[in-house]
Amino acid sequence: MGAVRAPAVSGRFYPGTRDELQRAVRELLRTVEPGAHPSTARAAIAPHAGYLYSGLTAAHVFARLRLPRLIVIVAPNHTGMCRASGGASLWETGAFATPLGEVPIDDAFTAALLAACPLVGVDHDAHRTEHAVEVMLPFLQLLQPEARIVPLVLAWDDWTSSEQLGNSLATLIKGAAEPVLLLASSDLNHYEPAAVGELKDAQALGAVQALDGAELLDRCRRERISMCGRAPAATVLAAARALGATRAEVVDYRHSGWVTGDESAVVGYAAVVIP
Length: 275
What we know:
- This protein is an alpha/beta fold.
- The chain has helices at residues 18-32, 51-62, 107-116, 125-128, 137-143, 159-174, 194-209, 213-222, 230-242, 257-260, and strands spanning 4-5, 43-46, 70-76, 88-90, 95-98, 101-104, 120-122, 148-154, 180-185, 190-192, 249-255, 266-274.
- The strands form two sheets. Strands 2, 3, 4, 7, 8, 9, 10, 11 and 12 form a nine-stranded mixed sheet that branches.
């Protein structure tokens, strides 16, 4: 049995007790469910801010997914801590904990990924205080109690690496004995006026809808779009394309100004499903 990664943002990004967290997630999902029709998908992109700001957008993703038991979560590295030589930090065995319990790591898939892609290395330090995987888990725990995860945190920002990891993931998924969901964790543009942020978010999402990871990364650099999970999104787009996806659907968009009423410096959030 491997190490259990303890919650790092419980009580801050989401409620810190089991009952409060269950109620919060169920209420978010209930808000979406009348218009949502769960179905299978190859991949998705969901935001990872505090539930007050992005929880409803995340719920728009999860309410539309018929979740498989195996989920690969690809997240950005916000902390700057990375000991994986190839920049893709993996927690390879054990479990991730939240107030709702533990979500086990899929040891077989992580072992296969380590063997298949030299960019991936075991690196617990990159995960210990990183929130971008953790905030996804309560949704998985409520909707798919048998969920197993493959948690990856990426420290790079280039297309070559994103494409290589995406293709490796796609190859493993093609050979898997069960369905797998690819889940990219990302917010959109950060801390600019709403009018500016909305325009930049639309530019980023245009590349996402075209399943064009290379253009997404180029556009973020060219237009100075501070989408924190652009490399995870590009990686998942590459994998989804290799798995036969032809489109991505934006099912919700909003920004933090909708909650705070302050549009002087907002962060954008989108819910994307890739069938």
